[in-house]
Amino acid sequence: MLFLFFGSLSKAQETIVTYVAKNGGRTAHKDSAAYTSILRIVPNEEGLYELNDYYPNGDLKRHGWVKTLDPLRLRFEGLVETYYDNGSLETSVRYAENQRVDTAEKYYRNGVLKEREAYLKRPQEQLNIPRPDASKRLVYYADSIGNVQVQDGNGEAEIVYNKIDIERGHYVDGLRQGRWEGTFRKAKYRFEEWYESGLVTKGITTDSLEKQYAYEQRDIKPEYPGGTRNLAHFVAQNYRYPKEAVQAKVSGQLLITFVVDTTGIPTEFEILNDLGYGTAAVGIDAIKKAERWSPGYQRGIPARVKYTLPIRLNISSRPRQEPSSP
After folding, report:
1. Residue 279: is its pLDDT beyond 70?
2. 36-61: string of b/e by CB count within 10 Å (b at 16+)?
3. Which CATH number is 252's domain given?
4. In a domain? residue 161
């Protein structure tokens, strides 16, 4: 598949402490948290706030800088580094306005450099084009023992996912080129696809029964009729405040996740930030009443895709929300 909230001020209101659950949501209990996130509320000279995340054993999980003090909407700026639970560096990424810039590096758990990507500045007229790889180039790739497969953007790579699936093919000037092959979904499917300057021109997936599926786009996201803005409008128009929430003058942001299944129906709802008084249940009911989505596809195969829907509640006005995919 392509978040409850708890925050507290501590140390004389110097930090905001949040306990993050395994699913990315928030919990009130440190013992049940996957990690603890701490934001310093005093900015540095550049107006940025320091972020430190810690594993349950106290080891550092992530360090970086953000532009806001909202734990639910972190906007990264500058260098952000993440660490494995064994203490070794996992990723090193630079951000500007919450977008990746310059270079990003990934490492294996044993400390060997895995890959280096370069991010190019996109022309203004292309910023709204839904092609996330348009400004990304693979500069370097190596296996876990340091054998270099791609250098200066050129070479033949064999990329392993989840220790099972493999994709192999050529990179030219940092982009996929020519014929690629491999497996996906735990080797349930195998594929062949052809690239021109990083774009798929055609592909064929074969399942375990040798049935073939042709495609011209590698990934197709689910689509709500009229777009996600239309879904936001529908939920706003159909959200009905519970009486208890009105009496309690509840305000804030709900976070609800759901999976758009292979038939286009939202399912597997999770409440990741609950404001109480039945507000989340009403939000889920509104989403269920909406129209069916067009399902997503991965290499020609129907795919389940998870979405997150923020719903802003304010008793003095209708709720506002903008759905997004993680």
Report:
1. yes
2. bbbbbeeeeeeebbbbebbbeeeeeb
3. 3.30.2420
4. no
